[in-house]
Amino acid sequence: MGEMVLAGYGMDKAVRSSVSFETPCGRLLRELEQIWTEIGEREEDKDRMFLELETECMRVYRRKVDSANAERSQLRQSLMAKEAELKALVASIGESTPKFKVDEKQSLKDQLATVTPLLQDLRSKKEERMKQFSIVQSQIMKIKAQISDSNNQYDNGSVNHSKDDHDLSTRRLSDLQAELRNLQKEKSDRLQKVFIYVDEVHCLCSVLGMDFAKTVKDVHPSLHGANSENSTNISDSTLEGLTQTILKLKAEKRTRVSKLQQIVEKLHKLWNLMESTEQERRHFAKVAAVLGSTEEEITSPSILSLETIQETEEEVERLTTQKASRMKELVLKKRLELEDICSNAHMEPDMSTAPEKIIALIDSGLVDPCELLSSIETQIAKAREESLTRKDIMEKVDRWLSACDEETWLEEYNQDSSRYSAGRGAHINLKRAEKARVLVQKIPSMIDNLIAKTFAWEDERNTPFLYDGSRLVAILEEQKLRRVQKEEDKRWYRDQKKLQTLLLKEKELIFGSKPSPKKTSSFRRTSSHHPNGNGPGFMTPAPRRVSAGSATPELLTPRSYSGRYNNYFKENRRLTAAPLNFSTVSKEDSMSSFASISGSEPDSPLVLH
Protein backbone atom coordinates (compact mmCIF):
# COMPACT_ATOMS: atom_id res chain seq x y z
CA MET A 1 0.00 0.00 0.00
CA GLY A 2 2.87 2.32 0.85
CA GLU A 3 4.50 1.64 -2.51
CA MET A 4 1.30 2.60 -4.26
CA VAL A 5 1.14 5.86 -2.31
CA LEU A 6 4.77 6.68 -3.06
CA ALA A 7 4.23 5.88 -6.66
CA GLY A 8 1.29 8.28 -6.61
CA TYR A 9 3.54 11.06 -5.28
CA GLY A 10 5.82 10.72 -8.21
CA MET A 11 3.00 11.27 -10.71
CA ASP A 12 1.60 14.46 -12.17
CA LYS A 13 -0.35 16.79 -10.08
CA ALA A 14 -3.51 15.85 -11.91
CA VAL A 15 -2.95 12.31 -11.15
CA ARG A 16 -1.98 13.07 -7.53
CA SER A 17 -5.17 14.80 -7.00
CA SER A 18 -7.03 11.72 -7.98
CA VAL A 19 -5.15 9.48 -5.54
CA SER A 20 -7.15 8.08 -2.70
CA PHE A 21 -6.36 9.65 0.59
CA GLU A 22 -8.38 7.18 2.59
CA THR A 23 -5.31 5.31 3.82
CA PRO A 24 -3.35 6.57 6.82
CA CYS A 25 -0.44 7.46 4.59
CA GLY A 26 -2.76 9.22 2.20
CA ARG A 27 -4.31 11.22 4.95
CA LEU A 28 -0.86 12.22 6.18
CA LEU A 29 0.20 13.23 2.69
CA ARG A 30 -2.90 15.29 2.26
CA GLU A 31 -2.31 16.93 5.60
CA LEU A 32 1.33 17.56 4.63
CA GLU A 33 0.26 19.06 1.32
CA GLN A 34 -2.22 21.38 3.04
CA ILE A 35 0.46 22.48 5.45
CA TRP A 36 2.86 23.16 2.62
CA THR A 37 0.12 25.08 0.77
CA GLU A 38 -0.60 27.19 3.80
CA ILE A 39 3.07 27.79 4.18
CA GLY A 40 3.28 28.74 0.57
CA GLU A 41 5.74 26.24 -0.67
CA ARG A 42 6.25 26.25 -4.33
CA GLU A 43 5.22 23.37 -6.44
CA GLU A 44 8.78 22.62 -7.43
CA ASP A 45 9.75 22.43 -3.77
CA LYS A 46 6.79 20.28 -3.04
CA ASP A 47 7.73 17.90 -5.83
CA ARG A 48 11.31 17.84 -4.61
CA MET A 49 10.28 17.12 -1.04
CA PHE A 50 7.80 14.49 -2.21
CA LEU A 51 10.57 12.93 -4.23
CA GLU A 52 12.86 12.91 -1.23
CA LEU A 53 10.12 11.42 0.86
CA GLU A 54 9.53 8.77 -1.77
CA THR A 55 13.24 7.94 -1.89
CA GLU A 56 13.39 7.67 1.86
CA CYS A 57 10.39 5.37 1.89
CA MET A 58 11.95 3.23 -0.80
CA ARG A 59 15.05 2.82 1.32
CA VAL A 60 12.97 1.74 4.31
CA TYR A 61 11.00 -0.74 2.26
CA ARG A 62 14.16 -2.09 0.69
CA ARG A 63 15.68 -2.70 4.09
CA LYS A 64 12.59 -4.49 5.14
CA VAL A 65 12.56 -6.57 1.98
CA ASP A 66 16.23 -7.40 2.33
CA SER A 67 15.72 -8.36 5.96
CA ALA A 68 12.79 -10.53 5.02
CA ASN A 69 14.77 -12.18 2.24
CA ALA A 70 17.63 -12.85 4.62
CA GLU A 71 15.32 -14.34 7.18
CA ARG A 72 13.71 -16.51 4.53
CA SER A 73 17.09 -17.66 3.30
CA GLN A 74 18.14 -18.42 6.84
CA LEU A 75 14.95 -20.38 7.46
CA ARG A 76 15.46 -22.33 4.25
CA GLN A 77 19.10 -23.07 5.11
CA SER A 78 18.11 -24.10 8.62
CA LEU A 79 15.38 -26.29 7.22
CA MET A 80 17.76 -27.87 4.74
CA ALA A 81 20.42 -28.38 7.42
CA LYS A 82 17.95 -30.00 9.76
CA GLU A 83 16.63 -32.16 6.94
CA ALA A 84 20.21 -33.22 6.15
CA GLU A 85 20.98 -33.83 9.83
CA LEU A 86 17.76 -35.78 10.11
CA LYS A 87 18.71 -37.96 7.19
CA ALA A 88 22.27 -38.40 8.59
CA LEU A 89 20.92 -39.42 11.99
CA VAL A 90 18.54 -41.88 10.42
CA ALA A 91 21.37 -43.33 8.37
CA SER A 92 23.76 -43.38 11.37
CA ILE A 93 21.37 -44.93 13.87
CA GLY A 94 19.95 -47.23 11.28
CA GLU A 95 16.43 -47.20 12.63
CA SER A 96 13.30 -47.29 10.55
CA THR A 97 12.37 -43.59 11.10
CA PRO A 98 9.51 -42.30 8.85
CA LYS A 99 10.87 -40.23 5.97
CA PHE A 100 10.22 -36.49 6.28
CA LYS A 101 8.68 -34.71 3.24
CA VAL A 102 8.49 -30.93 2.91
CA ASP A 103 4.96 -29.61 2.37
CA GLU A 104 5.26 -26.65 -0.02
CA LYS A 105 1.95 -25.33 1.17
CA GLN A 106 3.26 -24.83 4.69
CA SER A 107 5.38 -21.89 5.66
CA LEU A 108 9.02 -22.33 6.43
CA LYS A 109 8.48 -21.86 10.14
CA ASP A 110 5.80 -24.53 10.15
CA GLN A 111 8.12 -26.85 8.32
CA LEU A 112 10.85 -26.16 10.88
CA ALA A 113 8.39 -26.75 13.69
CA THR A 114 7.62 -30.16 12.20
CA VAL A 115 11.29 -31.17 11.70
CA THR A 116 12.64 -30.00 15.05
CA PRO A 117 10.91 -32.59 17.35
CA LEU A 118 11.99 -35.45 15.12
CA LEU A 119 15.52 -34.11 15.09
CA GLN A 120 15.61 -33.76 18.87
CA ASP A 121 14.35 -37.32 19.30
CA LEU A 122 17.01 -38.70 16.97
CA ARG A 123 19.70 -36.64 18.70
CA SER A 124 18.75 -38.13 22.08
CA LYS A 125 18.77 -41.59 20.57
CA LYS A 126 22.18 -40.91 19.08
CA GLU A 127 23.56 -39.77 22.43
CA GLU A 128 22.21 -42.93 24.11
CA ARG A 129 23.62 -45.07 21.35
CA MET A 130 26.98 -43.33 21.59
CA LYS A 131 27.05 -44.07 25.33
CA GLN A 132 26.41 -47.73 24.60
CA PHE A 133 29.16 -47.76 21.98
CA SER A 134 31.49 -45.94 24.33
CA ILE A 135 30.94 -48.46 27.14
CA VAL A 136 31.37 -51.47 24.85
CA GLN A 137 34.36 -50.06 23.01
CA SER A 138 36.06 -48.95 26.21
CA GLN A 139 35.69 -52.48 27.62
CA ILE A 140 37.01 -53.97 24.39
CA MET A 141 39.99 -51.67 24.38
CA LYS A 142 40.66 -52.35 28.06
CA ILE A 143 40.63 -56.14 27.59
CA LYS A 144 42.80 -55.82 24.48
CA ALA A 145 45.22 -53.70 26.43
CA GLN A 146 45.29 -56.33 29.21
CA ILE A 147 45.90 -59.12 26.72
CA SER A 148 48.58 -57.24 24.80
CA ASP A 149 49.95 -55.52 27.91
CA SER A 150 50.06 -52.21 25.98
CA ASN A 151 48.54 -48.98 27.32
CA ASN A 152 49.13 -47.16 24.05
CA GLN A 153 46.69 -49.33 22.20
CA TYR A 154 43.91 -48.32 24.57
CA ASP A 155 44.47 -44.63 23.70
CA ASN A 156 44.50 -45.42 20.01
CA GLY A 157 41.22 -47.22 20.50
CA SER A 158 39.61 -44.01 21.76
CA VAL A 159 40.69 -42.23 18.56
CA ASN A 160 39.31 -44.99 16.42
CA HIS A 161 36.05 -44.72 18.36
CA SER A 162 35.65 -41.03 17.38
CA LYS A 163 36.27 -41.86 13.74
CA ASP A 164 33.57 -44.50 13.73
CA ASP A 165 30.80 -42.24 15.16
CA HIS A 166 29.00 -42.09 11.80
CA ASP A 167 28.11 -45.82 12.15
CA LEU A 168 25.95 -46.21 15.24
CA SER A 169 23.68 -48.93 13.92
CA THR A 170 22.39 -51.75 16.05
CA ARG A 171 24.15 -54.20 13.74
CA ARG A 172 27.53 -52.66 14.52
CA LEU A 173 26.63 -52.50 18.20
CA SER A 174 25.78 -56.22 18.12
CA ASP A 175 29.10 -56.93 16.40
CA LEU A 176 30.96 -54.99 19.07
CA GLN A 177 29.06 -56.77 21.82
CA ALA A 178 29.88 -60.14 20.24
CA GLU A 179 33.53 -59.08 20.05
CA LEU A 180 33.36 -58.04 23.69
CA ARG A 181 31.93 -61.42 24.70
CA ASN A 182 34.70 -63.21 22.82
CA LEU A 183 37.30 -61.03 24.48
CA GLN A 184 35.72 -61.61 27.89
CA LYS A 185 35.80 -65.36 27.27
CA GLU A 186 39.43 -65.13 26.18
CA LYS A 187 40.18 -63.09 29.28
CA SER A 188 38.46 -65.68 31.47
CA ASP A 189 40.42 -68.48 29.76
CA ARG A 190 43.66 -66.60 30.16
CA LEU A 191 42.89 -65.82 33.77
CA GLN A 192 42.14 -69.48 34.43
CA LYS A 193 45.35 -70.47 32.68
CA VAL A 194 47.30 -67.94 34.77
CA PHE A 195 45.78 -69.39 37.96
CA ILE A 196 46.71 -72.92 36.85
CA TYR A 197 50.26 -71.85 36.03
CA VAL A 198 50.59 -69.95 39.31
CA ASP A 199 49.29 -72.97 41.23
CA GLU A 200 51.79 -75.24 39.46
CA VAL A 201 54.59 -72.80 40.23
CA HIS A 202 53.46 -72.81 43.88
CA CYS A 203 53.58 -76.63 44.03
CA LEU A 204 57.02 -76.75 42.41
CA CYS A 205 58.36 -74.04 44.70
CA SER A 206 56.93 -75.90 47.69
CA VAL A 207 58.66 -79.15 46.68
CA LEU A 208 61.92 -77.39 45.83
CA GLY A 209 61.84 -75.22 48.94
CA MET A 210 62.02 -71.98 46.92
CA ASP A 211 60.41 -68.57 47.61
CA PHE A 212 57.10 -68.61 45.74
CA ALA A 213 56.38 -64.87 46.10
CA LYS A 214 59.75 -63.86 44.68
CA THR A 215 59.46 -66.36 41.84
CA VAL A 216 56.08 -65.12 40.57
CA LYS A 217 56.91 -61.46 41.17
CA ASP A 218 59.89 -61.87 38.88
CA VAL A 219 57.37 -62.77 36.17
CA HIS A 220 54.88 -59.97 37.01
CA PRO A 221 54.18 -58.12 40.28
CA SER A 222 50.41 -58.60 39.95
CA LEU A 223 50.69 -62.39 40.27
CA HIS A 224 51.11 -62.33 44.05
CA GLY A 225 49.01 -60.55 46.64
CA ALA A 226 45.60 -58.88 46.41
CA ASN A 227 45.68 -55.40 44.85
CA SER A 228 42.43 -53.77 43.67
CA GLU A 229 44.29 -51.19 41.61
CA ASN A 230 46.47 -53.70 39.86
CA SER A 231 44.53 -56.75 38.76
CA THR A 232 46.14 -59.99 37.72
CA ASN A 233 48.02 -59.57 34.48
CA ILE A 234 46.94 -61.93 31.68
CA SER A 235 49.12 -60.70 28.83
CA ASP A 236 51.01 -62.93 26.44
CA SER A 237 54.28 -61.94 28.06
CA THR A 238 52.98 -63.03 31.49
CA LEU A 239 51.80 -66.39 30.18
CA GLU A 240 55.10 -66.89 28.38
CA GLY A 241 56.99 -65.91 31.52
CA LEU A 242 55.01 -68.40 33.63
CA THR A 243 55.58 -71.12 31.04
CA GLN A 244 59.33 -70.56 31.02
CA THR A 245 59.36 -70.44 34.82
CA ILE A 246 57.54 -73.77 35.04
CA LEU A 247 59.96 -75.35 32.55
CA LYS A 248 62.94 -74.10 34.56
CA LEU A 249 61.44 -75.34 37.83
CA LYS A 250 60.67 -78.75 36.31
CA ALA A 251 64.22 -79.02 34.97
CA GLU A 252 65.55 -78.08 38.40
CA LYS A 253 63.23 -80.63 40.01
CA ARG A 254 64.40 -83.32 37.59
CA THR A 255 68.02 -82.55 38.41
CA ARG A 256 67.43 -82.59 42.15
CA VAL A 257 65.39 -85.81 41.98
CA SER A 258 68.21 -87.54 40.13
CA LYS A 259 70.78 -86.24 42.59
CA LEU A 260 68.71 -87.12 45.65
CA GLN A 261 67.90 -90.60 44.34
CA GLN A 262 71.61 -91.30 43.92
CA ILE A 263 72.26 -90.09 47.46
CA VAL A 264 69.32 -92.09 48.87
CA GLU A 265 70.52 -95.21 47.04
CA LYS A 266 73.86 -94.87 48.80
CA LEU A 267 72.01 -94.22 52.04
CA HIS A 268 69.97 -97.41 51.65
CA LYS A 269 73.09 -99.46 51.01
CA LEU A 270 74.75 -97.99 54.07
CA TRP A 271 71.65 -98.63 56.19
CA ASN A 272 71.52 -102.24 55.10
CA LEU A 273 75.26 -102.60 55.50
CA MET A 274 75.33 -101.03 58.92
CA GLU A 275 72.03 -102.66 59.92
CA SER A 276 70.68 -99.32 61.06
CA THR A 277 67.69 -99.41 63.38
CA GLU A 278 64.25 -98.15 62.46
CA GLN A 279 64.74 -95.27 64.86
CA GLU A 280 67.84 -94.14 62.96
CA ARG A 281 66.03 -94.39 59.62
CA ARG A 282 62.84 -92.64 60.70
CA HIS A 283 64.30 -89.15 60.33
CA PHE A 284 64.98 -89.77 56.63
CA ALA A 285 61.84 -91.83 55.94
CA LYS A 286 60.31 -89.21 53.61
CA VAL A 287 63.58 -88.72 51.79
CA ALA A 288 64.04 -92.47 51.42
CA ALA A 289 60.64 -92.71 49.70
CA VAL A 290 62.07 -90.70 46.78
CA LEU A 291 64.04 -93.71 45.59
CA GLY A 292 61.05 -95.67 44.37
CA SER A 293 58.93 -92.69 43.24
CA THR A 294 58.49 -90.88 39.94
CA GLU A 295 58.81 -87.12 39.57
CA GLU A 296 55.02 -86.69 39.58
CA GLU A 297 54.68 -88.65 42.82
CA ILE A 298 57.17 -86.46 44.71
CA THR A 299 54.99 -83.70 46.19
CA SER A 300 56.04 -83.41 49.84
CA PRO A 301 56.94 -79.83 50.85
CA SER A 302 60.68 -79.03 50.80
CA ILE A 303 61.51 -82.67 50.01
CA LEU A 304 63.84 -81.47 47.23
CA SER A 305 65.14 -78.36 48.94
CA LEU A 306 68.85 -77.69 48.99
CA GLU A 307 68.81 -78.02 52.76
CA THR A 308 67.26 -81.49 52.58
CA ILE A 309 69.75 -82.64 49.96
CA GLN A 310 72.65 -81.26 51.98
CA GLU A 311 71.36 -82.90 55.16
CA THR A 312 71.06 -86.26 53.35
CA GLU A 313 74.57 -85.91 51.97
CA GLU A 314 75.88 -85.22 55.44
CA GLU A 315 74.14 -88.37 56.73
CA VAL A 316 75.74 -90.41 53.95
CA GLU A 317 79.15 -88.98 54.81
CA ARG A 318 78.59 -89.77 58.49
CA LEU A 319 77.63 -93.37 57.76
CA THR A 320 80.53 -93.72 55.34
CA THR A 321 82.93 -92.62 58.07
CA GLN A 322 81.27 -94.99 60.50
CA LYS A 323 81.42 -97.80 57.95
CA ALA A 324 85.19 -97.49 57.66
CA SER A 325 85.60 -98.24 61.37
CA ARG A 326 83.35 -101.30 61.15
CA MET A 327 84.59 -102.61 57.84
CA LYS A 328 86.12 -105.81 59.21
CA GLU A 329 82.89 -106.75 60.93
CA LEU A 330 80.89 -105.93 57.81
CA VAL A 331 83.17 -107.93 55.52
CA LEU A 332 82.99 -110.98 57.78
CA LYS A 333 79.22 -110.64 57.94
CA LYS A 334 79.03 -110.57 54.14
CA ARG A 335 81.31 -113.60 53.99
CA LEU A 336 78.97 -115.43 56.37
CA GLU A 337 76.06 -114.49 54.11
CA LEU A 338 77.95 -115.93 51.14
CA GLU A 339 78.61 -119.16 53.02
CA ASP A 340 74.94 -119.46 53.97
CA ILE A 341 73.87 -119.06 50.36
CA CYS A 342 76.42 -121.64 49.19
CA SER A 343 75.47 -124.02 52.01
CA ASN A 344 71.80 -123.86 51.13
CA ALA A 345 72.63 -124.50 47.48
CA HIS A 346 75.33 -127.15 48.36
CA MET A 347 78.02 -125.11 46.60
CA GLU A 348 81.57 -124.43 47.67
CA PRO A 349 82.26 -120.74 48.42
CA ASP A 350 85.24 -118.98 46.92
CA MET A 351 88.16 -119.68 49.25
CA SER A 352 89.97 -116.50 48.17
CA THR A 353 87.72 -114.64 50.60
CA ALA A 354 87.88 -117.12 53.46
CA PRO A 355 87.47 -115.50 56.89
CA GLU A 356 91.07 -116.08 57.95
CA LYS A 357 92.36 -114.59 54.71
CA ILE A 358 90.00 -111.62 55.03
CA ILE A 359 91.21 -110.84 58.54
CA ALA A 360 94.84 -111.16 57.47
CA LEU A 361 94.36 -108.86 54.45
CA ILE A 362 92.53 -106.19 56.42
CA ASP A 363 95.04 -106.25 59.25
CA SER A 364 97.93 -106.02 56.83
CA GLY A 365 96.43 -103.00 55.08
CA LEU A 366 97.32 -104.39 51.65
CA VAL A 367 93.71 -104.38 50.44
CA ASP A 368 91.09 -101.70 50.71
CA PRO A 369 88.22 -103.09 52.83
CA CYS A 370 85.70 -101.44 50.50
CA GLU A 371 87.14 -103.31 47.52
CA LEU A 372 87.11 -106.52 49.51
CA LEU A 373 83.48 -105.91 50.47
CA SER A 374 82.59 -105.18 46.87
CA SER A 375 84.29 -108.40 45.79
CA ILE A 376 82.29 -110.44 48.30
CA GLU A 377 79.06 -108.74 47.22
CA THR A 378 79.88 -109.69 43.64
CA GLN A 379 80.43 -113.29 44.77
CA ILE A 380 77.09 -113.18 46.61
CA ALA A 381 75.33 -111.98 43.48
CA LYS A 382 76.94 -114.73 41.40
CA ALA A 383 76.10 -117.36 44.04
CA ARG A 384 72.47 -116.27 44.09
CA GLU A 385 72.31 -116.32 40.33
CA GLU A 386 73.86 -119.80 40.16
CA SER A 387 71.58 -121.08 42.94
CA LEU A 388 68.61 -120.06 40.80
CA THR A 389 69.97 -122.09 37.87
CA ARG A 390 70.50 -125.09 40.20
CA LYS A 391 67.05 -124.82 41.77
CA ASP A 392 65.33 -127.36 39.51
CA ILE A 393 68.06 -129.98 39.96
CA MET A 394 68.28 -129.40 43.72
CA GLU A 395 64.54 -129.94 44.05
CA LYS A 396 64.94 -133.29 42.25
CA VAL A 397 67.85 -134.17 44.54
CA ASP A 398 65.69 -133.43 47.57
CA ARG A 399 62.93 -135.65 46.23
CA TRP A 400 65.44 -138.44 45.58
CA LEU A 401 66.88 -138.16 49.10
CA SER A 402 63.37 -138.17 50.53
CA ALA A 403 62.65 -141.39 48.62
CA CYS A 404 65.87 -142.89 50.01
CA ASP A 405 64.72 -141.99 53.52
CA GLU A 406 61.46 -143.80 52.90
CA GLU A 407 63.39 -146.83 51.57
CA THR A 408 65.44 -147.05 54.74
CA TRP A 409 62.36 -146.70 56.88
CA LEU A 410 60.70 -149.48 54.88
CA GLU A 411 63.70 -151.78 55.48
CA GLU A 412 63.55 -151.11 59.21
CA TYR A 413 59.80 -151.61 59.16
CA ASN A 414 60.14 -154.98 57.36
CA GLN A 415 62.55 -156.21 60.06
CA ASP A 416 60.04 -155.44 62.82
CA SER A 417 58.38 -158.77 63.77
CA SER A 418 55.51 -156.98 65.48
CA ARG A 419 54.59 -154.80 62.51
CA TYR A 420 51.31 -156.72 61.95
CA SER A 421 50.21 -156.51 65.56
CA ALA A 422 47.11 -154.56 66.45
CA GLY A 423 49.00 -151.93 68.39
CA ARG A 424 48.49 -148.18 68.27
CA GLY A 425 49.42 -146.64 64.92
CA ALA A 426 49.84 -149.99 63.14
CA HIS A 427 47.39 -149.05 60.39
CA ILE A 428 49.22 -145.76 59.83
CA ASN A 429 52.54 -147.60 59.37
CA LEU A 430 50.86 -150.03 56.97
CA LYS A 431 49.65 -147.17 54.78
CA ARG A 432 53.04 -145.53 54.91
CA ALA A 433 54.70 -148.83 53.97
CA GLU A 434 52.42 -149.15 50.92
CA LYS A 435 53.29 -145.64 49.77
CA ALA A 436 56.98 -146.24 50.52
CA ARG A 437 57.05 -149.39 48.32
CA VAL A 438 55.58 -147.41 45.41
CA LEU A 439 58.08 -144.62 45.95
CA VAL A 440 61.06 -147.01 46.23
CA GLN A 441 60.22 -148.47 42.85
CA LYS A 442 60.60 -144.97 41.34
CA ILE A 443 64.10 -144.41 42.72
CA PRO A 444 65.95 -145.82 39.66
CA SER A 445 63.96 -143.60 37.30
CA MET A 446 64.57 -140.65 39.63
CA ILE A 447 68.30 -141.25 39.42
CA ASP A 448 68.21 -141.58 35.63
CA ASN A 449 66.17 -138.41 35.21
CA LEU A 450 68.43 -136.56 37.61
CA ILE A 451 71.53 -137.69 35.69
CA ALA A 452 69.99 -136.58 32.39
CA LYS A 453 68.99 -133.22 33.87
CA THR A 454 72.47 -132.75 35.32
CA PHE A 455 74.14 -133.60 32.00
CA ALA A 456 71.92 -131.06 30.24
CA TRP A 457 72.85 -128.39 32.82
CA GLU A 458 76.56 -129.17 32.39
CA ASP A 459 76.35 -129.12 28.59
CA GLU A 460 74.55 -125.79 28.66
CA ARG A 461 77.11 -124.11 30.92
CA ASN A 462 80.16 -126.18 30.02
CA THR A 463 80.96 -126.76 33.68
CA PRO A 464 80.43 -129.71 36.05
CA PHE A 465 77.54 -129.62 38.50
CA LEU A 466 79.16 -129.91 41.93
CA TYR A 467 77.32 -130.95 45.06
CA ASP A 468 79.32 -130.01 48.15
CA GLY A 469 82.49 -130.09 46.06
CA SER A 470 81.80 -133.44 44.32
CA ARG A 471 80.39 -133.94 40.89
CA LEU A 472 76.74 -134.89 41.21
CA VAL A 473 76.81 -137.20 38.17
CA ALA A 474 79.62 -139.29 39.71
CA ILE A 475 77.66 -139.58 42.95
CA LEU A 476 74.53 -140.67 41.12
CA GLU A 477 76.41 -143.20 38.97
CA GLU A 478 78.00 -144.63 42.10
CA GLN A 479 74.58 -144.99 43.68
CA LYS A 480 73.36 -146.83 40.61
CA LEU A 481 76.28 -149.28 41.00
CA ARG A 482 75.48 -149.71 44.69
CA ARG A 483 71.88 -150.56 43.88
CA VAL A 484 72.96 -153.05 41.18
CA GLN A 485 75.39 -154.70 43.62
CA LYS A 486 72.68 -154.81 46.24
CA GLU A 487 70.28 -156.55 43.86
CA GLU A 488 72.98 -159.09 42.94
CA ASP A 489 73.62 -159.80 46.62
CA LYS A 490 69.92 -160.27 47.20
CA ARG A 491 69.71 -162.78 44.38
CA TRP A 492 72.84 -164.60 45.70
CA TYR A 493 71.29 -164.79 49.16
CA ARG A 494 68.03 -166.20 47.80
CA ASP A 495 69.98 -168.86 45.89
CA GLN A 496 71.89 -169.82 49.03
CA LYS A 497 68.69 -170.07 50.99
CA LYS A 498 67.19 -172.37 48.36
CA LEU A 499 70.35 -174.51 48.49
CA GLN A 500 70.15 -174.69 52.26
CA THR A 501 66.56 -175.90 52.00
CA LEU A 502 67.62 -178.67 49.56
CA LEU A 503 70.42 -179.77 51.88
CA LEU A 504 68.03 -180.01 54.82
CA LYS A 505 65.68 -182.14 52.80
CA GLU A 506 68.62 -184.36 51.75
CA LYS A 507 69.61 -184.85 55.39
CA GLU A 508 66.06 -185.85 56.27
CA LEU A 509 66.17 -188.51 53.59
CA ILE A 510 69.56 -189.80 54.82
CA PHE A 511 68.97 -189.73 58.56
CA GLY A 512 65.25 -190.34 58.42
CA SER A 513 64.45 -187.43 60.68
CA LYS A 514 65.03 -183.75 60.93
CA PRO A 515 68.45 -183.17 62.46
CA SER A 516 68.55 -181.46 65.76
CA PRO A 517 69.79 -177.94 65.63
CA LYS A 518 72.13 -178.66 68.51
CA LYS A 519 73.82 -181.43 66.58
CA THR A 520 74.05 -179.44 63.39
CA SER A 521 77.39 -177.84 63.17
CA SER A 522 77.39 -174.20 62.21
CA PHE A 523 80.02 -173.56 59.63
CA ARG A 524 81.59 -170.20 59.39
CA ARG A 525 81.92 -168.95 55.88
CA THR A 526 85.47 -168.47 54.81
CA SER A 527 86.82 -165.49 53.00
CA SER A 528 87.42 -167.61 49.90
CA HIS A 529 83.79 -167.25 48.89
CA HIS A 530 83.30 -166.09 45.35
CA PRO A 531 80.83 -163.38 44.47
CA ASN A 532 78.90 -165.76 42.28
CA GLY A 533 78.39 -168.26 45.09
CA ASN A 534 80.36 -171.13 43.47
CA GLY A 535 83.16 -171.38 46.02
CA PRO A 536 84.32 -174.71 47.30
CA GLY A 537 82.77 -174.20 50.67
CA PHE A 538 80.71 -171.44 52.16
CA MET A 539 78.15 -170.86 54.79
CA THR A 540 75.44 -168.35 55.41
CA PRO A 541 76.57 -165.13 56.94
CA ALA A 542 75.67 -164.33 60.47
CA PRO A 543 73.00 -161.73 59.89
CA ARG A 544 72.76 -158.75 62.17
CA ARG A 545 69.52 -156.98 62.91
CA VAL A 546 69.72 -153.39 61.99
CA SER A 547 68.94 -151.20 64.90
CA ALA A 548 68.25 -147.50 65.00
CA GLY A 549 71.41 -145.49 64.66
CA SER A 550 73.55 -148.31 63.17
CA ALA A 551 73.73 -150.02 59.79
CA THR A 552 76.25 -151.52 57.44
CA PRO A 553 77.33 -148.49 55.41
CA GLU A 554 78.42 -150.44 52.34
CA LEU A 555 75.04 -151.95 51.52
CA LEU A 556 72.49 -149.49 52.82
CA THR A 557 70.33 -147.56 50.38
CA PRO A 558 70.80 -143.80 49.92
CA ARG A 559 69.11 -143.34 53.28
CA SER A 560 72.67 -142.87 54.48
CA TYR A 561 72.78 -139.63 52.48
CA SER A 562 70.63 -137.96 55.08
CA GLY A 563 73.62 -137.66 57.37
CA ARG A 564 72.44 -140.09 60.04
CA TYR A 565 73.90 -143.38 58.78
CA ASN A 566 76.89 -142.83 56.55
CA ASN A 567 79.74 -140.43 56.26
CA TYR A 568 78.94 -140.26 52.55
CA PHE A 569 76.51 -137.47 53.37
CA LYS A 570 77.73 -134.97 55.89
CA GLU A 571 75.60 -132.60 57.88
CA ASN A 572 72.53 -131.29 56.01
CA ARG A 573 72.91 -134.00 53.35
CA ARG A 574 76.20 -132.77 52.03
CA LEU A 575 77.82 -135.27 49.70
CA THR A 576 81.47 -136.17 49.75
CA ALA A 577 83.58 -137.30 46.88
CA ALA A 578 84.95 -140.42 48.61
CA PRO A 579 84.57 -143.30 46.09
CA LEU A 580 83.79 -146.81 47.20
CA ASN A 581 85.86 -149.84 46.25
CA PHE A 582 83.49 -152.77 46.03
CA SER A 583 86.37 -155.21 45.83
CA THR A 584 87.23 -154.46 49.45
CA VAL A 585 83.71 -154.97 50.75
CA SER A 586 83.42 -158.02 52.92
CA LYS A 587 81.07 -160.58 51.51
CA GLU A 588 80.28 -161.68 55.04
CA ASP A 589 79.10 -158.16 55.82
CA SER A 590 77.04 -158.22 52.66
CA MET A 591 75.48 -161.52 53.62
CA SER A 592 74.80 -160.20 57.09
CA SER A 593 73.08 -157.16 55.70
CA PHE A 594 70.85 -159.14 53.38
CA ALA A 595 70.11 -161.62 56.10
CA SER A 596 68.90 -158.69 58.10
CA ILE A 597 66.87 -157.41 55.16
CA SER A 598 65.25 -160.80 54.61
CA GLY A 599 64.38 -161.09 58.28
CA SER A 600 66.21 -164.48 58.87
CA GLU A 601 67.20 -165.40 62.37
CA PRO A 602 70.82 -165.47 63.53
CA ASP A 603 72.86 -168.64 63.43
CA SER A 604 70.71 -170.17 60.67
CA PRO A 605 72.88 -173.03 59.47
CA LEU A 606 74.05 -173.34 55.90
CA VAL A 607 76.01 -176.53 55.34
CA LEU A 608 77.60 -177.68 52.14
CA HIS A 609 79.32 -181.04 51.94
Automatic annotation (TrEMBL):
Question: Which stretches does the entry tag as region Disordered?
Answer: 512-558
Q: Name one GO biological process term.
A: microtubule cytoskeleton organization
Which cellular component, as a GO term, is one annotated location?
A: cytoplasm
Q: Which domain of life is it from?
A: Eukaryota
Bias class Polar residues marks the residues at 518-531
Coiled-coil residue windows: 58-85, 166-193
Which keywords has UniProt assigned to this entry? Answer: Coiled coil, Microtubule
Keyword hit for Coiled coil: yes
Molecular function terms in GO for this entry? microtubule binding
Entry's InterPro entries? MAP65_Ase1_PRC1 (IPR007145)
What protein family does this chain belong to? Belongs to the MAP65/ASE1 family.
By what name is this protein known?
A: 65-kDa microtubule-associated protein 6
Q: What is the lineage of its organism?
A: Eukaryota, Viridiplantae, Streptophyta, Embryophyta, Tracheophyta
